[in-house]
Amino acid sequence: MDNAQPADEKRAAADEFRARNDALFARRKELHGQITELRARIDAGSGDTSAEVALRKAERDFDDLTYEILTANYGLVRQYVAMFTTRSVEHSEDFESAGKVGLLWAISSYDPARGSFSSWAFKPIQREVLRAVRDADHANLTLGDFEKRPAILAAERGFIEEHGADTPVDYADIAGRAGVTEAQVRRVLAPARLESLQSPHRGQDEDVVAWEDRLTDPSLNLEEEVLVRFHLRALLTEGLPRLDARERYVLTRRFGLDGGREQSLRILGEQLGLSREGVRQIQQKALAKLKGPVAGTV
Fold first, then answer.
1. Per-residue pLDDT tens digits for 203-219
2. What distance in Å separates the CA atoms of residue 160 and residue 59, rounded to the nearest whole number?
3. CATH number of 143-189: 2.60.120, 3.40.50, 1.10.10, 1.10.287?
C-alpha cells in the first residue's frame, strides 16, 4: 500500500496536468477563431473601431496564452535536452533554445484529436535539438548521417562485444547491423579531421609554418574591390528593402552591412530569443530572396 500511494499520486497529478493543458489548448483554439473572424470583418470593411480594439485584445490574450502553454510544457524540452548535456554542458543553453523552437512549432500545429500533447511535441523538439547538437558537436556530419549515428554506435558496440576490442573494425559488418551504408559508417566512425588554419605544418625546407600562411593572398585588386563595393551598395539600396524587418536585421548584423562588427548566430539568437538554428534559417531565407540580380544598370 505504501508503494501504491505515490504511484496513485503521480497518476492523479499527471491527469490533472493533462486536463489543464487540454483546457489551455481549447481556449487557444477559441481565441484563434475569434481572431480569424475579427480580421475577416475588418478586411471586408465591415468592422468598426470596437472590432479593431477587440482584435488587438484577442491577439494579446492569444500571445499570453501561448506563452503560458510554453511555460507549462517546457519540462518536455529539458527532459529531452538532458540526454545531450553530459558531454556538451557548454552548449546546453543552445540546445534548450532549439528545443523551444520545436515546442513552439508543436503548440501551433497541435490538434487534441491526435492524442496527448507530449507525444505530439516529441518529434519537433527532437528535430530541432538534434540539429543544434549536430551544429555544435558534429558539424562535419550531414543531418542524415547524424540521425543514423545512434544506430551506428550501437552496432559498433555489438561488434566489439562479439569480436573483442582488439579486432579491427569491420565497416561492412557494422553497416549491416545498423541498416545503413558502409559509407555512412565510415563518415560517422572515422570522420575527416578538420585542421585549424593556425595549426603548424612542416614545410619542404623543414620550416614550421601555419596552414594559413601557405594559402594564396586573398586580397582584392583595385578593380575587384570597386566591383564588390558597387554590388554591396546595390544590395543595401535595392536588395534589403525586399526583406521583412527580421530578415534585414539578421543580414545587416550577421555580415556587418551597417559598418558594425559581424555578429555570430549565437549572439543574434540571444538578441532575438531564438536558437542558432532559428537564426540560420532566417539568414538562408533572406539570402534566397536576394539570389536574383539586385544591381541596376549604371
1. 444 444 444 444 444 44
2. 58
3. 1.10.10
